[in-house]
Recover the amino acids of this structure.
């Protein structure tokens, strides 16, 4: 019987292979600005190496969160956009991330 094989390559060239039915062989690491992400290789991540940085800046500029705001991140994935807004929210702010993919929730 054939098995699904997923290959993930990070923006820095780190790679991971996941074979269906086997335990996760390790997390991949991504960095966006000063924020580090440890991701399951099958979790969705932007495919272009500059996309996470560019999109995070667009989100920060557009949302213009203020301290103590409560933000909802729908289809939040691994938390890329939530992480981009953390510095604007301060300790009183709050983010509710909504996501259906279990791996992405764990990574967030």
């Amino acid at each position: 019987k054939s098995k699904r094989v997923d290959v993930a390559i990070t923006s820095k060239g780190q790679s991971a292979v996941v074979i269906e039915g086997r335990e996760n062989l390790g997390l991949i690491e991504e960095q966006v600005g000063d924020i580090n992400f440890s991701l399951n290789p099958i979790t969705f991540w932007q495919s272009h190496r500059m996309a996470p940085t560019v999109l995070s800046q667009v989100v920060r500029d557009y949302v213009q969160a203020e301290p103590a705001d409560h933000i909802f991140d729908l289809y939040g994935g691994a938390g890329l956009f939530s992480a981009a807004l953390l510095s604007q929210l301060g300790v009183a702010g709050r983010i509710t991330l909504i996501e259906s993919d279990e791996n992405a929730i764990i990574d967030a």
The chain has a mean pLDDT of 88. The first strand starts at residue 5 and ends at 9. The domain at 5-107 is CATH 3.40.50.150 (Rossmann fold).
